[in-house]
Amino acid sequence: MTVDLSKTLIVMPAYNEEAVIDQVLTEVYSTNPGITCLVVDDGSRDRTTQISSQAGAIVATLPYNLGVGGAMRVGFNYALANGFENVVQVDADGQHNPRDVARLVAELSDADLVLGARFAGSGDYEAKGPRKWAMIVLAKLLSRSAHAQLTDTTSGFRASGPRAVKLFAQHYPAEYLGDTVESLVIAARAGFVIKQVPVSMRARAGGTPSHSPIKATIFLARVGVAMLFAFLRPPVKEIGQSQL
Amino acid sequence: MNPVQYTLGIVASVATFAIVIEMLRRRRLRERHAGWWIVAGLFAIIISVFPSTLRFASELLGFEVPVNLVFFLSLFILFLVALQHSSELTQLESHNRSLVERLIVLELKVKDLEKQTSISQSNNSD
After folding, report:
1. Pick from A75, A76, A39: which is nearest to A54 by CA?
2. Contact pairs from chain A to chain B, CB under 8 Å
3. B59–chain A Cβ distance below 8 A for any pair
4. How far is A41 from chain B (nearest CA, A)?
5. Domains assigned to chain A
6. pLDDT, tens digit (0-9, with 9 covering 90-100), for A135-175
């Protein structure tokens, strides 16, 4: 399968990822020859910026931590200012398989937003307990609002098409969980076509996943609040011109 | 109420009001942040100069102890001020974030242009 990736920008939010980012970038470039990759160093206190730029990525170094949402906003704005049509978000910790980037972008031909879903049959990622229930409820709610069958709505592995890039550059939520959950609500209410593609997730190359029941419950509560306000807020309108 | 208390009340309320006005005059406080403080200062002056207004108002509203009306109003105003501050903080954060976004995009553009000019210069010198 060959997909033109010249108009596609990979945005990789990174926070203290010096241990793995070199390896992740090398894999991104070897599996997607010729692609442009923007690493957004989200106020790291290690050598993430230097290592990424040596690995050949364009590096945006934020002066202080803005969170994944804030980092993605920078990515969308960079894409707009530099003529990229599609943005693919890839985690810097090696969780997402860069081989799937082309598959996500291919689906953008008839969708505005494509999610790489972890539970859709491929790979062996599984959540348990309250976190799993939260994700199921969330998926049901968002599927209804997006008119699509979505199973993994908190996935950070996603591709945005030209319409979504334009909208997200201005309206991507910067709060925690806003970047994954609320952005879907914004996209659905703007009438975007949302699709999901099964992808396999791998164990993180670095960092530790959170699995404590207390954390899961807090996660559940925060998801609830994020969802509630996402629907209570007035829908955002698409604007013709870019911010810059 | 003895004359000392009476005077103390007036001095304190006038001082509060004067400080707010002086800060506004020196541009240490913007008008839109000063609104609640001016309202509070004016109330304090009226009540300290004419304590009967407080008694009258609390009787009218059914407060048995007049000072409870003062506490109620003070709490209410302080609550609104705190809420306004939280909202302005949120706004400032989002303005700050969009400045960072623009700054970063411009920074990358400058780097890119620098690279291009250094390439074209080295080409010219060859």
Report:
1. A39
2. 34
3. no
4. 11
5. 8-232 (3.90.550.10)
6. 787 888 888 888 888 888 878 899 999 999 999 998 998 88
